[in-house]
Amino acid sequence: MRELIWANLRARPVRTLLSVAAVSLQVFLLLFLMGLTDGIVQEWGSRIKGIGADLLVQPPNSSVFLAFSSAVLPEQLTPRLRQVEGVEEVAPVLAVVNSNSITMIYGIEYDNYSRLGGGFLFHQGGPFREPYDVIIDDIKAASKNLKVGDTVELLNQPFRVSGIVEHGRGARYFIPLRTAQELLGVENRVSMFWVKSTGDVESVRQKFQQLLPRYSIRRMDEYLSLMVSDNLPEVRPFTNSVILVGLVITFLVVLLSMYTIVLERTREIGILKALGASRWDIVALLVREALAIAVLGAAVGVGASYGVKEILISLRPTMSILITPQWLAYGILLALLGCVLGAVYPALRAAAADPVAALAYE
Predict the structure, then answer these.
(1) Taking a C-beta distance cutoff of 8 angstroms, is the pair 282, 351 a contact?
(2) What is the spatial distance between Cα 205 and Cα 200, in angstroms, rounded to a whole number?
(3) b/e for 85-117, b at 16 or more Cβ within 10 A?
(4) What are the boundaries of each domain within the chain?
C-alpha cells in the first residue's frame, strides 16, 4: 500500500508539486508571520530588562508596549518620586517612534538614565555634548554603517552621533530629553518614569500607588511577564486570520486535487474493490496519500521559514524572528488537518463507488 501511495504521487508530479506548495505556503505564512511578531516582542522585552529599573510609572490605561505611551506625564513629578523612601533613582523618559524607520527613540536625561542598572557601555565616543547629539546602540550602528561623528536623521532633524553603546538599554537611539520635548512640542512632559529602588521594590510600588492612585505602576518582573504577542493590539484576530486563510487554502487545493485523482483512478479503485479491498481500505489509501502531501508540504514550509529567517537576519541585523516549538507544532498540525479535511469527501465518494460500474468506467 505504501508503494502504491508514492507511485501515485510520482505519476502526477505537477499536481503533487502544486499541492505540496499550497501546504508549504500555509506553514510558511504561519511560522514566518508569528515568528516575526514573537521575535519583535521577545527582543523588546530583553531590551527593557537591560535598562536595570525596578519599577515603571506610566499614565492611566497605558499600553504595556511603550511605543503606544503618550507624553502626558508632568516632568515635575520627578522630584516627588525621588523623595519617596526606598527610591534610589528616577529617570524620566520621552519615548517616540522615528517615522522614517519605525525605530524607538528615547529622550533621556543622560546622568539619571545612566545610573539605572549598569549604565551605558560605550564602544565608541561618549555622552551627549550638544542638543542635537544622539547615542546609538551597536546593532543599529552596524546595520546603518554609522560611526562617531556621522550624521543621522531622526524626527526630520539631523543628529550627530556622539557615541555607540552596547545594545540592550531600551531603545536603539537616545537623544537629550529637552531636544525631544522641543521637537514634539510637549514641553515638561514625558512618557514614563523608570525607577530604581534601594531594595524593597513592593514597598516602593505601594507608596507610589498611594501618591499616584490613578497611574499605572508596574514592577519589572510583572511588566516582563506581559511581554507576549497576545498582548499586542489586534494580534489575536490577525493570528486567527492567518490560520483560517492557510487552512482554507490547504483544504481547497487538496480537495480539488484528491477529487480529480478519484475521477482519474475510477478503474483502479474498481480493481482494488474487486480484489477484496473494503470501503475503509479505499478511504485509508486516499487519506494516507493526502497525509503524505501534508508531510512533504510541512517539511518544505518549515525549511523555507528557517531559510528566509537566516537571510533576513543577515540582511537586517536589527530584525528578530523567533520560530517557537509551539508555532512549529501548530503549523504542522494545521497542515495535517487541512489535508485530511480536503481528502475526506473524495475518499468517501471513492469508497462508495460500485466496483462493476468502476471497472466499466472509461
Answers:
(1) yes
(2) 9
(3) ebbebbbbbbbbebeebebbbbbbbbebbbbbb
(4) 2-42+234-359, 60-214
pLDDT tens-digit map of 276-297: 667 777 777 778 888 888 899 8
Q: Which neighbouring-strand residues pair with 79?
A: none
Residues of the chain above pLDDT 90, percent? 31
| Grid coordinates of 255 | 480537495
Cell of 361: 468506467
Q: Is the pLDDT of residue 26 over 80?
A: yes
CA within 13 Å, CB half, 245? 12
Residue 175 and residue 133 in contact, taking contact as beta carbons nearer than 8 Å: yes
What pairs with residue 267 in β-bridges? none
Question: How far is it, in rounded angstroms, from Cα 200 to Cα 207?
Answer: 11
Instruction: Choose among 69, 157, 54, 61: nearest CA to 106.
Output: 69
Confidence band, pLDDT 50/70/90 cuts, at residue 91:
very high
- Give the pLDDT band of residue 275 (cuts 50, 70, 90): low
pLDDT higher than threshold 70 for residue 361: no
Cβ(299)–Cβ(27) below 8 Å: no
For residue 2, which amino acid is it?
Answer: R
- DSSP symbol at 69: -
